[in-house]
Amino acid sequence: MEEIEIKFAVKNIKVITDKLRKLGFRIASGRHLEKNYLFDDMSGNLQTAGKLLRVRKTPLTQTLTYKGPISAKSRLKHREEIECKVEQADILIRILGEVGFKVRTEYSKYRTVFEGNGFNVSLDETEAGNYLEVEGPSDDEITKLGEKLGYSENDFVRRTYAELIGKRREDDKKGRETA
């Protein structure tokens, strides 16, 4: 299945939440903690190819997700996504380690999920900042929703959370080393 999405940086959670509600969005999943574990082989072949293998744990579900490389041809992020629920994420994590995969990146975020008008919109609170991740039926429809929320194409964030959080951690580390 193809995933079409884009992120927008959020300056004020209350303002963006109010805008979503005024546009008819409803909360599909209340604020909850997600733990994400991104895997790769010892050579980093998945990352080099722009692919992702993730185990995600939330209070209600645990999933295994594969994401293909992000298409460079689009303004938004287009990529293949294959996902399934798993019953025992901790055991799956151990199995992946036993067959040669390692956790490349681990991060947590608080997520609130909104749905409406054919869109899935996630308000994510991460250590790299707050973001609105908009998934929808097409580039044009997502762009139009972004405009209704006060964003333009200049506000598109195509980077993954692993990239954003990795950059934040790197910057924090450099700041500690120079202090």
Overview of this protein structure:
The structure is a single chain. The chain has five helices and eight strands; from the N terminus they run βαβαβββαβββαα. It is α+β, with helices and mostly antiparallel strands and 179 residues long. An eight-stranded antiparallel barrel has the order 1-5-4-3-2-6-7-8, surrounded by four helices. A hairpin with a 2-residue loop joins β6 and β7. It is globular and about 50 Å long. It starts with a strand and ends with a helix.
Give me some keywords for this one:
8 strands; 5 helices; alpha+beta; Hypothetical Protein Pfu-838710-001; 179 residues
Topology (SSEs and partners):
Layout (H helix, E strand, L loop, with lengths): L1 E8 L3 H10 L3 E16 L3 H4 L3 E6 L4 E6 L9 E9 L3 H10 L2 E16 L2 E8 L2 E7 L3 H10 L12 H18 L1
Antiparallel strand pairs: 1-5, 1-8, 2-3, 2-6, 3-4, 4-5, 6-7, 7-8
Number of domains: 1
Q: From N to C, what is the helix and strand string?
A: EHEHEEEHEEEHH
* Beta-strand share of residues: 35-45%
Question: Low-confidence parts, pLDDT < 50 over ≥5 residues?
Answer: none
What radius of gyration results from the CA coordinates? 17 Å
Biggest sheet strand order reads 1-5-4-3-2-6-7-8
